[in-house]
Amino acid sequence: AGKALPVTATEVLIRFHRARQPVLDDTTASKQNHYRFRLGPEVLIALSTNVKMPGERLVGEQIELVARHQQPGEMQPYERLLGDALRGDTMLFAREDSVEAAWKAVDPILETNSAVLPYASGTWGPREAAAVGPEGGWHDPVALAKTAPCL
Prior knowledge:
Elements: E1 10-15, E2 34-40, E3 43-52, E4 60-69, H1 79-87, H2 96-110
Antiparallel strand pairs: 1-2, 2-3, 3-4
């Protein structure tokens, strides 16, 4: 279920194909350029690319340009939801019939009694999880440094 992972994030990573003939002759050639979209709990869009370092040598480094959505005074997670609940506003809450329908979909999966694989807190899960993943491999999100708000 993904509990106690090192980072809480909903993220999509799109890796670009590598150049057929790399221009830079160093270890950055092994790193792929990519777009990264993080949808929660922070919202950001990032573009990562290999760039030439200053100087005559064709040596590069990977950099990432990050655009982060962060408004001054923005509500913390669940702050609005709790406020709405206190005011009796049910607009953002699921109705009983939709919750019952969701459980009808989930119950058959829960009844399969598949084995639970333990793993250490703060890791990316059991070793067996590495074998499950999308084509092109799995991407573990990284924690974002706390910096000044970006525009």
